[in-house]
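Example for tutorial group B:
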């Protein structure tokens, strides 16, 4: 197998950027500066469908789009899984009575601006509302994409102070937006501040940069963050089309630098609601030392009705994966309950019947097997 760290191949670029020197193309700041953010620019690069053009116009104020040259280079026709995650579509205007602006009630659980505290031992810190690509299924589209809503230094200082005053918080998720949109210096400053709080045990960086801007995972950034381990990285690959040589390099650099990397895939209709797609994705992730640990049911946020799948679709994918892929490649299926109810996990039903202590189970091939249970201890 080719070692992704030395693989010579790179993702073919869109012809618009073919002449850009490699040095610039590999520079994450260049990628950020050259994001495609207007209809006029995108029209010059992609043969937009009428539904996409209408979606861009309809959603311009509510949830704008932005796409890095790298991620746009992965996109193909209108049904392409990359394009559907990045380019607005008129179906985003479909509403349902159960759509919510803030499905996880993060604002309700925000004791100070820039921080949510929903579970006793965990806090979520929003350090920026900027991202390389604005994912069309984003749960935080109420504020992501609006640079004016990002917490400033004073607000973040208050949030850090809250963590310092709340020793029950052991685990801080550094999120946003995408925290890797910040400069190295600012990100390291925040991480160092958190690490200076004795009660904080674990830091988690929530970032989609390995997917949408893998050039951001530089040796310099990793070297600067290394002294603050343990740092977990939660990333968010959704489709094998995102599994490029550049993405592999980013994940391997993270693993080599001692970060524990996990993937949270969001289940999306017509994009990855297919066991073969998930199996291919998860096998590739494992080869890059990234553990596929969640399949998330898409949150009922306004603008995503057309992307949401039935919950049963996730259960069937798990059912198909079991027995075909090692347990390492079988994530937990999670529904984050609207209204701040927290996460619940779902599993395919494998217990067929129980006869006294005899329990009959169905395995991944559909065959039945009996396990004789131990009797309960007498009280
Ligand atoms: S990277 Fe994360 S926060 Fe940013 S738009 Fe995508 S899902 Fe939302």
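The residue assignment follows.
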């Amino acid at each position: 197998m080719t070692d992704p760290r030395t693989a010579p191949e790179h993702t073919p670029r869109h012809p618009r950027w073919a002449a850009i020197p490699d040095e610039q193309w590999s520079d994450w700041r260049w990628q950020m500066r050259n994001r495609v953010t207007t209809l006029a620019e995108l029209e010059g690069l992609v043969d937009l469908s009428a539904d996409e053009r209408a979606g861009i116009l309809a959603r311009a104020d509510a949830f704008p789009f932005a796409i890095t040259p790298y991620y746009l280079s992965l996109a193909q026709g209108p049904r392409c899984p990359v394009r559907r995650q990045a380019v607005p579509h008129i179906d985003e205007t479909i509403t349902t009575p159960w759509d919510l602006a803030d499905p996880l009630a993060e604002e309700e659980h925000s004791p100070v601006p820039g921080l949510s505290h929903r579970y006793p031992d965990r806090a979520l810190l929003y350090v920026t509302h900027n991202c390389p690509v604005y994912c069309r299924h984003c749960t935080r589209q109420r504020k992501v994409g609006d640079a004016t809503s990002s917490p400033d230094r004073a607000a973040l200082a208050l949030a850090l102070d809250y963590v310092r005053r709340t020793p029950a918080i052991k685990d801080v998720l550094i999120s946003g937006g995408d925290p890797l949109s910040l400069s190295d210096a600012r990100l390291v400053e925040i991480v160092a501040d958190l690490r200076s709080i004795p009660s904080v045990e674990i830091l988690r960086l929530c970032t989609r940069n390995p997917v949408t801007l893998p050039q951001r995972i530089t040796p310099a950034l990793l070297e600067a963050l290394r002294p603050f381990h343990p740092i977990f990285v939660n990333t968010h690959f959704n489709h094998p089309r995102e599994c490029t040589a550049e993405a592999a390099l980013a994940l391997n650099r993270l693993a080599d630098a001692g970060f524990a990397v996990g993937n949270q895939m969001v289940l999306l209709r017509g994009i990855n609601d297919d066991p073969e797609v998930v199996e291919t994705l998860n096998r590739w992730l494992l080869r890059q030392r990234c553990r596929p640990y969640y399949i998330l049911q898409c949150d009922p946020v306004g603008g995503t009705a057309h992307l949401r799948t039935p919950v049963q679709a996730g259960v069937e994918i798990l059912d198909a994966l079991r027995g075909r892929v090692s347990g390492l490649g079988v994530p937990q299926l999670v529904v984050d309950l609207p209204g701040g109810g927290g996460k619940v996990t779902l599993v395919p039903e494998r217990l067929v019947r129980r006869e006294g202590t005899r329990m009959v189970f169905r395995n991944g091939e559909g065959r039945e097997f009996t396990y004789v249970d131990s009797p309960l201890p007498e009280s």
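Residues 131, 134-135, 138, 140, 144, 176-178, 208 surround iron/sulfur cluster (CB under 6 Å). Compare this with the pattern of hydrophobic and polar residues in the output above.
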